[in-house]
Every structure is written in structure tokens, then in C-alpha cells.
Automatic annotation (TrEMBL):
<dbReference type="GO" id="GO:0015074">
    <property type="term" value="P:DNA integration"/>
</dbReference>
<feature type="domain" description="Integrase catalytic">
    <location>
        <begin position="125"/>
        <end position="300"/>
    </location>
</feature>
<protein>
    <submittedName>
        <fullName>Transposase</fullName>
    </submittedName>
</protein>
<dbReference type="Pfam" id="PF22483">
    <property type="entry name" value="Mu-transpos_C_2"/>
</dbReference>
<dbReference type="InterPro" id="IPR054353">
    <property type="entry name" value="IstA-like_C"/>
</dbReference>
<feature type="domain" description="HTH cro/C1-type">
    <location>
        <begin position="11"/>
        <end position="46"/>
    </location>
</feature>
<dbReference type="InterPro" id="IPR009057">
    <property type="entry name" value="Homeodomain-like_sf"/>
</dbReference>
<dbReference type="InterPro" id="IPR001584">
    <property type="entry name" value="Integrase_cat-core"/>
</dbReference>
<dbReference type="InterPro" id="IPR001387">
    <property type="entry name" value="Cro/C1-type_HTH"/>
</dbReference>
<dbReference type="Pfam" id="PF01381">
    <property type="entry name" value="HTH_3"/>
</dbReference>
Length: 455
């Protein structure tokens, strides 16, 4: 029985000053005789807690302990926290597989003791200004043009000041990875001496953790240009980059809640950058001064930015097909029909596809991350449609921009082919030759075509 200080004082007083027996004290205070016996001689005090000494039990053999440890090892082979052994499940398996006869409470105690023994200890880390930055990718959802999209957002956090940069992408590929580094360096106004992150396939081609033996060619180029080194974490060792691991969750819960609703990825990234800039007013509990005050110290020792920024775009040299299309990662994009059969230069960035011929940009498309999609610019085909007007109602580029019901209304009119072609030329600002820099949106095109047909 646990007693308070007042009761303890009464037991001691009655025993020492009044000379009462333990039995008499027990009756007078209405407590057990064992409690009186424990405290009357001053051998124990109620304000000190004795260490619990568990009784040894014969049912918990070395075989049982080895079985429990193997369950722990099996759990460590994957990272699904919600699908690991509980003490109750271990007890069930012990009964089924080893014929264990002990109670569940015994196994819960042993599991708790063994987990405490096997729990990994971590060394607290400290960094000098400009010494390192930790990086990672996280996932979140946002509404872009009314459609819910799953995005990848890149985080870079300076280890000394705790200042960070975040940028969202549609994918976690090499172009996005390289662009994220460059955007981060521009945001900070300098380059940390090294980065700390996972063994991302976009950076590492051979090896793991401390045993990375080969990096990708383009990442080596980026490192050489900005003069930083890379440190790779061991697999499933988030503690080695705990600053950015915490940041990923912080950004998702704060900057991404409520779920953003924007018209473009650029608009979302502008909002995220503003959020990053506002973080300099924060204070980190384990550090003196604000993030901004510490960043002002760190910024002075960051490596300077090069005069020319590395281009993260992927370069390819495809040949334009007879349908005036080029292919990139199963998706097809249109170019002006004048370039059919010619080799062009395709530059694939994180969010756009640009096409060049002899250093002149001839096409520009939003990058599609789906599979087997075709993206047309209606302006690329108008010159061809002037000579093949009969195909206009079945032309894929036209159908992508003009709603089906509008096409049917034009098809029902006398001279509908010429009327639709004339409108497409006018809506693109075309007179004699196509102008690919003006691309009507589907909504505006739909409204104007409806008005034209109704008139």
C-alpha cells in the first residue's frame, strides 16, 4: 500500500512517542499491519520509489527469448509500422509454434524488457554554419485546375540555421531532382559544403549508404559545377537526417493544410516559397536566436553561386514523324508540320517540353507524366488543314481543342469545313502562316465557337 506523508508521520509518531504496538497502530489508523510494519521503523519512506525487481520465471526460457528476438528481426526487414508484431501476437505464435504455457502478461513484460535492450541509441549532432544541408522528398495532394493531383515536394534544410526551401513537382525524376537543388541554392543565395540524403536512384547508380561506389553522370556534373559533396544515409536510417525528416511532416501538416487549390504548379510553388521566407521569424527550441538571425550568420559562409546555372533539362534528338509528332517517354508532342522528317532538339524540364531546330524554339508544351498521351498544338496543323480541309472534323488536334457537340454543329452547316477552319485561323491570330505562340484555351474556344454556330 502506498501512503502519503501525513500518514507516514502518524505511524512513526505513534510508534516512537506513544509506544504503541504495530497491531494497535493498525487498528487506530485502519490500515494493514504489513503497512505499519514496513514504515514504523523508518526502514522505508513513501517518497522514494524502489526499483522493481521482477521475479524469474521458468517458462521464459532462452528458446522463448530467441523466438521473440527473431520476431523483432523479421519486423526490421520492412518499414510498415502498422504491420509489425505486438506482444499479443508474439504470445499467440509462442503458443501455436512452441507450445508455450505462460500467460500473456509474462510475454508483455519480456517483450518490453527486450525491446528496451535492443532499442538503438543515437548521437546528438551539431553542425557549423554552411557545413551541410539535409534533403528529402515527401508526398502530398493539391487541387490544380480543379483536379486532385498527387505531388512530390522537395525539401532542403540547412543544418546550422534550420532554414529550409520547399518546391513541388509532379514526379521524383532526375530533372526534378537537379532543378530542386538549383532552386534551393538560388533561394539561399549560396551553396552548403555538402548534402545529406537517402540513396536516391536519381543520384546513385551503384552502392548503398557509406558504400556508394558510383553516382549518376548528371549528378556528378551538378556537384562539380556547384562544388558541394554528398553524404549518403544508410537504408532505413531516418535519424541520420532527422532535421529534414521532421520538416517533411511539418510542411505537409502546415503549408499543405487545407489542401491547396491553385491554377498551376507555378502558383503553388510561389505560395510555398513565400511560406519558406516567413519561416525566418521562427525560433527552434534547441537553439538560441531566430532562424533568420542564424541564417544571416550561415549565409556569409555558404559557397558562392556560379555565374552560369546548370541546366537540369534532359536533351534528346528525335526525328519528327509523318504526323508531325515527337516521342518522349511514351508520350507524343506536336511540332509544326514544316519539320516532318527532320531531326530536332528536345529539352525536357520538370514541367515543360521545349523543342528546337537550329537553336530556334519551334514548340513548347506542358510536360505530361501519364502514359501514351498525345499533346497537340492546334496552331501546328492549321497550315496543313488548309490543304486537307476534308479531314478537319476527324483531325485529332482539332478534336482535342474543340468539343464534340460543337464539331457536330459545324458539320451540320453548309460550308462547315471552311467556317471552322476560318475560325481556327482567326482564333490563333493567323492570316497566311501559323503563329504557334498563340494557343487558345479549350474553354475560350468552346465559348466562341458556340457563339459562332448560334449566330
Amino acid at each position: 500500500m502506498k501512503i502519503d506523508l501525513e500518514l507516514y508521520e502518524q505511524i512513526r509518531h505513534l510508534h516512537l512517542h506513544d509506544g504503541m504496538s504495530q497491531r494497535a497502530i493498525s487498528r487506530k489508523l485502519d490500515i494493514s499491519r504489513n503497512t505499519v510494519s514496513k514504515y514504523c521503523n523508518g526502514e522505508h519512506v513513501p517518497w522514494e520509489r524502489k526499483e522493481y525487481s521482477s521475479r524469474s520465471t521458468t517458462v521464459v526460457t532462452d528458446e522463448v527469448k530467441d523466438f521473440i528476438l527473431k520476431c523483432f528481426e523479421e519486423d526490421d526487414t520492412h518499414s510498415f509500422k502498422k504491420q509489425k508484431h505486438t506482444a499479443t501476437r508474439i504470445h499467440q505464435r509462442l503458443q501455436d509454434e512452441l507450445g508455450f504455457t505462460g500467460s500473456g502478461s509474462t510475454i508483455r513484460r519480456v517483450v518490453r524488457e527486450l525491446r528496451n535492450k535492443t532499442k538503438e541509441a543515437f548521437v546528438p549532432l551539431e553542425f557549423d554554419p554552411g557545413e551541410a544541408a539535409q534533403i528529402d522528398f515527401g508526398s502530398a495532394y493539391a487541387y490544380i485546375k480543379g483536379q486532385r493531383k498527387k505531388l512530390k515536394f522537395f525539401c532542403m534544410r540547412l543544418c546550422f540555421s534550420g532554414h529550409f526551401f520547399v518546391k513541388a513537382y509532379y514526379a521524383e525524376n532526375e530533372e526534378c531532382f537537379l532543378d530542386a537543388h538549383i532552386s534551393s541554392f538560388k533561394f539561399f543565395g549560396g551553396v552548403p559544403k555538402r548534402t545529406i540524403f537517402d540513396n536516391a536512384k536519381v543520384a546513385v547508380s551503384e552502392g548503398l549508404g557509406a558504400y556508394v561506389t558510383k553516382e549518376t553522370k548528371r549528378y556528378c556534373e551538378l556537384k562539380a559545377h556547384y562544388q558541394f559533396a554528398a553524404t549518403y544515409c544508410n537504408p532505413r536510417s531516418g535519424n541520420e537526417k532527422g532535421l529534414v525528416e521532421n520538416l517533411v511532416g511539418y510542411v505537409r501538416r502546415n503549408a499543405m493544410v487545407p489542401m491547396p487549390k491553385v491554377d498551376s504548379l507555378d502558383e503553388l510553388n510561389a505560395t510555398l516559397e513565400s511560406y519558406c521566407q516567413g519561416y525566418i521569424e521562427h525560433s527552434i527550441a534547441s537553439r538560441t536566436g531566430t532562424v533568420g538571425e542564424n541564417f544571416s550568420i550561415e549565409k556569409r559562409v555558404l559557397l558562392p553561386l556560379p555565374l552560369y546555372h546548370y541546366s537540369p533539362e534532359k536533351l534528346l534528338y528525335p526525328e519528327v514523324s509523318a504526323y508531325s509528332l515527337i516521342t518522349f517517354q511514351t508520350n507524343k508532342y506536336s511540332v509544326p508540320t514544316d519539320y516532318c522528317g527532320k531531326e530536332v532538339c528536345l529539352k525536357a524540364g520538370p514541367s515543360e517540353i521545349r523543342v528546337y531546330h537550329k537553336n530556334e524554339m519551334i514548340a513548347n508544351h506542358e510536360r505530361n507524366y501519364g502514359k501514351n498521351h498525345r499533346t497537340y498544338d492546334i496552331g501546328h496543323y492549321i497550315k496543313l488543314l488548309e490543304t486537307k480541309a476534308r479531314a478537319i472534323f476527324n483531325a485529332a488536334p482539332v478534336r482535342q481543342y474543340v468539343p464534340k457537340d460543337v464539331l457536330q454543329m459545324y458539320a451540320s452547316k453548309h460550308g462547315g469545313q471552311k467556317l471552322l477552319l476560318a475560325y481556327l485561323k482567326e482564333s490563333n491570330g493567323l492570316k497566311e502562316t501559323p503563329d504557334i505562340t498563340v494557343i487558345p484555351t479549350q474553354l475560350n474556344l468552346y465559348d466562341q465557337l458556340i457563339q459562332e454556330v448560334n449566330s
